[in-house]
Amino acid sequence: MRQHLFSVLLIPFFLLLARQVPSGNEILEKVDRNMVSATKTVVSKMVIRGRRESRTIEAKSWQRGTSETFTECLAPAREKGTKMLKLKDMLWTYSPSTDRTILVSGHMLRQSVMGSDLSYEDMMEDPRLPNLYSATITTEETMIGRPCWVLDLVAKKEDIAYHGRKIWIDKTRYVVLKENLYAKSGKLLKTMEVRDVMEVQNRWVAKSLLFKDVLKDGEGTEFQVVALEFDPAIPAYIFSKAALKK
Amino acid sequence: MIVFLLKGLVRDRSRSLFPIVIVATGVMLTVFLHAYIHGAITIMIQSAAHYSTGHVRVMTKAYSEEADQVPNDCALLGIDTVIVELRRRFPDLRWTPRIKFGGLLDIPDDRGETRAQVPVFGFAADLLSPESPEWKVLNIHQAIVRGRVPQKRGEIVIADELAQTLNVSPGQTATLISSTMHGSMAVSNFTVAGTVRFGVAAMDRGTMIADLADIQQALDMETGAGEILGFFPDDVYHDDRATTMSAEFNGRNSEPANEFSLVMGTLRTESGMAEYLDLVGMFSGIIIGIFVIAMSIVLWNAGLTGSLRRYGEIGLRLAMGEEKGHVYRTMLAESLMIGCFGSLLGTAIGLAMAYYLQVEGFDFGSIMKNSTMMISDVIRAKITPFTFVIGFLPGLIATFLGTAISGIGIYKRQTAQLFKELEA
What we know:
The structure holds two protein chains of two kinds.
Chain A: H1 2-20, H2 24-35, E1 39-49, E2 54-64, E3 68-75, E4 83-87, E5 90-95, E6 100-103, H3 120-124, H4 129-132, E7 133-143, E8 146-155, E9 164-170, E10 176-182, E11 188-200, E12 203-213, E13 220-230
Antiparallel strand pairs in A: 1-2, 1-13, 2-3, 3-4, 4-5, 5-6, 7-8, 8-9, 9-10, 10-11, 11-12, 12-13
Chain B: H1 2-11, H2 13-53, E1 56-60, H3 61-65, E2 76-77, H4 79-89, E3 94-108, E4 114-125, H5 134-138, H6 140-143, E5 144-147, E6 155-159, H7 160-166, E7 173-179, E8 185-196, H8 201-204, E9 207-211, H9 212-218, E10 224-225, E11 227-231, H10 239-253, E12 262-266, H11 267-270, H12 274-309, H13 311-319, H14 324-360, E13 362-363, E14 378-379, H15 385-390, H16 392-406, H17 415-423
Parallel strand pairs in B: 4-9, 6-8
Antiparallel strand pairs in B: 1-11, 1-12, 2-10, 3-4, 3-7, 3-11, 5-8, 6-9, 7-8, 13-14
Helix pairs in contact in B: 1-2, 1-14, 2-12, 2-14, 2-16, 12-13, 12-16, 13-17, 14-16
């Protein structure tokens, strides 16, 4: 009788506990809600630390949803006016010196963007992780002084750049603070670490982060958000090939 | 005595014809094979030097460690200063900078959209300076199939096979999509001035050649080049000299902590041909060795057959009182005459065949169409002063040895038995 009473009292307690710890996929959904908006503009700086020297690329991006992005390089002079347009699974780049619009496809997608530790393939990925991965919480750790969930992500499909990911997500702000990207073999390919975060329109986002291609020499690529606006009005023509030559 | 022996050989063809044919055939094969192997090696070395490594190559340490991947992010910078210094220290060599690169060659349609696109391997050389040695080294004038050579900035030549694949003609625009030395995407427009065929399968599949300054600009490597090639004035690779130069240069410039310090490599080490060249050299020796041994055995056998046939003659000569040593010596003298004549004949025929292959060459194009080696499709023999003598001594020695071994039987004949043998 005592044993039965003990079970009756404890089961609701454990059920309550279970309700308080969200599942991996629920956490990813919350991260998405924090990041994704109908439209977005970002002014950013990318500091690329190469073997010989560091270079800084400044760019402005216009985004509509998660599948349409238009990016224009603002500096340095050599890259100024270079534009990139992503429409669903297509990516074009425009070079003002040649007045040519080139479709980036095939092995070119694996090339680095402006010499950084990011590839065009990285840009083409669907940023909504629940669409691509199944997530499980493995542990809890602290990153830049914030308590985080550590999630293991396994790809739901085969044709994907990174078969596995390990991500550290801020428990209350739902910002990804660290990420390790793995090949199917389990080999670590890239890492990302957030160094600073900021609050913009009631959303917490990364302000400064370091990408590192583990297979590449150099000290990685630092990405800094200079200005960010959620849900601005963006003219529809921006997301067309004609806009590349304007 | 010599005239007497000569008359004997001429009048009794069975004593001379077969040995002469054997010796001449062996010598002919030796001379021809030597000229052919030497020609093939020369062409391999020349192709590797002209299109890939030079006779010596100066680059940064980081570049040299991954040279096969053409890491232009590790390119030499400030090449003008480096070339001035190289010319001062090694004034007899011709120094010229090169940039190798990979990328896509994209042909636009009327609206500027991609009409055709293929991967290319390219190299940039100094094509527009009047004192540049590259015209001679790359042999572009002779390689032109359509159009002309580049005469001004922004012009390129591409492999004719590539031009046909892209359906592009001289005068049309082609866009190179590659990577700058910093890793950014590089997009540059060029005008196709002409199409070329080098006769090197690895290059004729998909090569473009541009002026150095254009590629420096396109790949954002002003004052830079992947490598500086050095060529000996006679355009012949001298391994000892190159090795000495390389050791001296590397000794002076060695900075273990600086991955961008300069290093000099030689064709032998840089082209990956070191083991191959050693192997070919060894095989040349083996071929000649086998020839001498095989010919000796064949001629020993021929000598034995001859001795059997001349059994009666030798017996009669011994019975008449001729000394065994004299009989043996006359047979050796005969063999020297046969060897000398057969070697001369074989050398003449071998040289004639080698000369034909030196002029006409042998086209391996269909076999080498998938080759990635920087070697000409047409392999030619090469006659050198050594080719004239390489077969002569082995031919002479083999005949002499064959007779010397078989002739030992003379000393085994018993004088007491001679008359019985003759009566029989």
